[in-house]
Structure formats: C-alpha cells, structure tokens
Amino acid sequence: MKIQIKILPDGRTVTAETGEKLLPVLRRAGLSPDAPCGGQGTCGKCRVIIDSQTVPACQAIVSQDMAVVTLPPQPKAEILSDSWGTVEQAAPIKQGPLLAFDIGTTTVVCYLLDGKTGKELACASMLNPQSAYGADVVTRIHAALRGALADLTAVLRAGMTGLIQTVCRRVGIRPEEIAVVSVVGNPCMQQLFLGISPKNLAAVPFSPVLTKAETRAARDCLPVCANAVLLIVPAISGYVGADTIGCVLSTRMYEAEETVLMIDIGTNGELVLGSSRQMAACAAAAGPALEGANIRFGMRGAEGAIDHVWLEDGGIQCSVIGGGKAAGICGSGLIDAAAALLDAGLLNRRGRLLTDEMLDGQRTVRLAGEIYLTQDDIRQLQLAKGAIAAGIELLAAQLGIGLEGIGKILLAGAFGSYLRPESACRIGLLPPVLLGKISVAGNAAGGGAKMLACSGRELRRAQELAERITFIELAEQPGFQRAFARNMGFDAAF
C-alpha cells in the first residue's frame, strides 16, 4: 500500500510503502538527515517531528499518511581547504584547466587550477552527502553491501558535480573545458566514487582494489567534465589510500633526512612514519568520536561548537565557534576538555570522571550552558586515543626506533589544524616527549591532489610510493592489544 508523506517545512510530498522506515524515505526525497550511526538507532541524531513528538527517523515506521517536520540541519561546518605543498612547474598530461578533489569521509573539497601555472583559481567545499548513510567508512561499507551502493555513488557524484559547476562559474569557464581531474580519498571513498563495491574492505585480508596509477575518461563518473582525463591514484592498503599518498607527496616526507611522522586524524586515522631511507604506514580505527559522533552533545566543527576548553581561576572555560551559545562540542574541544579535567583532578588515569553530578545513571561534567560530557563520552575518546597512540608506538617499533627518535610530527587534515598539541600530549594522544616537534600540515591530501593534477610525474611517483611504503596491519601485530589497552588510559599523560 502506497502511503503519502508530506515533508515540512518545504511542503514536498513523497510516497512510501507500509512498514518502511522513515529514514530511507527521506533519503529518496533528496534530504540528507544527519545519521552518524547509519540508521542503527544508536546516535539519535536523525530526529524529526511526527504528531508533535520528536523521534529518530531511522526508528519511525511508516504505517499511514503523515506529515513529517524535519529539524534544521547542523550549522555549516568549517571545512579546511588551505592546502600544503607547492606546484613547482605545471606539466599536466593534458592541456587545459585542471580539477583536484579531496574526498574525505566527512568533507569534500574541490580545487580549480590553471593548467599552465598550477595556480589555484577557485575552491569550493561541502560536507560529504554520504553522511546520511553513516559517519564512518565501516557504516557506509555495510550500507553499500545492503544495497545502497548505487545511492552512495550517486549522491557523491551529484555533490561533486555541484562543486565543479560552482568553481567553473566563479572563473567563467565551462566544465567541458576541464582537461584533467585528480581525485584522492581513502579506499572506501575512492571505490564508492567509482561505483566499485567495497566488499573487499569488509573482510580479511582487506585487500585494496585500486593498486595501479592509471587514467580513465572522466565523463564515465562526472559527465559534466565530458572531455577530461580522470586520474586514478593507487592505494597503499585496504585502509590507507590515495589521500595518504597525497599527504606524502605534498609534505615531501619521502625526501626527509630526519624521521617524520605524518598523521591524518579522522574517523580512520592514517599514519606514515619514515624518511628518505624507509617508510611504513598503518591505519588506526579511531572511530567517529573525534568528528563528533557517538558523543552525547558531539557535533562537527561548526558554529555553536565548543572548540576549545581550559581552566581559569579554578573553573572550566570554553570558547564557542561563532561566539554564541554552545550547541555541542567538536573533537578539538573534546580533547581540550579531557586535558582540563585531568588538570582539575576531575578525571583519573583510568578515565573515570570524579564528579558528583549524575544523569541517566552515569557521571557527567557540565561545560557550558546545557552542554556536558558523560562518562560514555570519555570512554569513546579513550578508544580513539588508544588506537592512534598504539599505532604510533608500533610504527616506531617497526622502524627500529624509539619515540624520541622521531624528528618531526606533521598533523594533516582539518582536525589536526585545530588541535592543541599541548592537550593532545596531555591526554597521551600524541607522545608527550614530542610536544616541541609538532607542526600543522593543513589539507595535505588536497595539496597532493593538486600536485597530481598538475604533473604526470607526480602520478608516477604516487605509484612508486604505493609500492615503497610498507603497510603494517596493526591487529596482526603481537603487541597491538597490549599497546591499545595501555594507551587507552591517561597514564602516559602524567
């Protein structure tokens, strides 16, 4: 039986089948409800109003004609587009304007470049529209395997097409004039963009599909770029992909004399450690907590988010993006808050909150207004920091050096750009011994994508790096479980 659903406030009407859940109905209507858990009913963020009751759309069952009021989306996130690295001389494989894409799990950035000089002409960005299917790659992989592959591919390509039209309009060129399109992203994002099932990423041995640098016709994925060549950038492993290759290219860490640690912290943290002599990489399953998911009041780094927390005159102080009332807390604020709570004696080495305030059976600490952290929030942070810190420790062991042998840490990506190194070291996310060696690399993956678009030589170098960098599967390392458990605690911070 067909059921009519009126979506307010825009007034459109869509049809659904009896017994269908509301979340996929909203997706079909072209909406992108915030659903970090992928519709599993655990995050509670895909809320809508039905009959004056606020309910998660993923749990609402369609049984009769109804009106559904969608709630305002999260404020537009601050998306990092400033890229690392420089194009010394443009020598693209085809002459004409160039496009470079960095497809992240959370955000997508598009750069339009001059084909003769490599100069950036325009830039546009957006939140990855696949977020309606889950905040992290694992959730999206499962969605694809349950039948949503075509939808995940379509919404991403449509969003990218919109960005292409935006940057071209700003400069006064037609998309058909684009000569080269380079795309970097983690293996899941690459495969979903290309319409390739990510089933290889769902089971051991997690082998990558895209292992060779090659070119294809861009029109097969992006018809708006009818005459462009699409660059396929190889992956290092099933969970360390072309975005990491882009980071290595733009930072040129493969030429370094000292040992450099490059970290791109996100839902899947990619780490590369090495120098001109040897390089190793791993993927740390940090989970989506640092992107605001699975945190009671977690949100992305957008207006209203608490982005920094500190102690002042014995009390907790917060800064809020935009300067208004706090609506939630983002990843950098979460790490700051944990560091401040450690300093205040309100959080112990095992990660237990030592406050008296209780809510829903667990300890909490209020940050600003109605925004507070829970014991569960701290546990989610511990899982993330445990994975990343263990990855650093085991990579160093693989190269036969101690942590003190690392000469420089480069923090890539948006999260790394807003992270306070002092707080990261205070909680043990990064080795405290390296505090003075930490610097920010900006959107290094985007910088690498630009270099690839501008030079066929860089595409060949990408292939060399994919073959040269040794991948370490953390879960298979004998000491991983011990290192992970040890680094979940805050002992290393004291």
What does this structure look like?
With 494 residues, this protein is of the alpha/beta class. Helices cover 29% and strands 24% of the residues. It contains eleven helices and 23 strands. The strands form five sheets. Strands 8-7-6-9-11-10 form a six-stranded mixed beta sheet, with helices on both faces. The chain is globular.
Question: What structural keywords apply?
Answer:
494 residues, alpha/beta, six-stranded mixed β-sheet, 11 helices
So how many helices? 11
Cα shape: globular
- Unreliable stretches, pLDDT < 50, 5 or more residues? none
Span of the ends, CA to CA:
63 Å
What's the pLDDT, averaged over the residues?
A: 90
Query: What fraction, in percent, of the residue positions are helical?
Result: 25-40%
Report the structural category.
alpha/beta
The total count of strands amounts to: 23
Widest β-sheet, arrangement of strands:
8-7-6-9-11-10
Question: How would you summarize what this structure contains?
Answer:
By secondary structure, this protein is α/β, with parallel strands linked by helices. It is 29% helix and 24% strand.
SSE map:
Blueprint: E1 2-8, E2 12-17, H1 22-28, E3 47-50, E4 53-56, E5 66-70, E6 98-103, E7 107-113, E8 120-127, H2 137-171, E9 180-185, H3 187-194, E10 214-217, E11 229-232, H4 242-251, E12 260-264, E13 269-274, E14 279-284, E15 305-312, E16 315-320, E17 328-329, H5 331-344, E18 358-359, E19 362-368, E20 371-374, H6 375-398, E21 408-412, H7 413-418, H8 421-426, E22 438-442, H9 444-454, H10 456-468, E23 470-471, H11 480-488
Parallel strand pairs: 1-5, 6-9, 9-11, 12-21, 14-23, 15-17, 21-22
Antiparallel strand pairs: 1-2, 3-4, 3-5, 6-7, 7-8, 10-11, 12-13, 13-14, 15-16, 18-19, 19-20
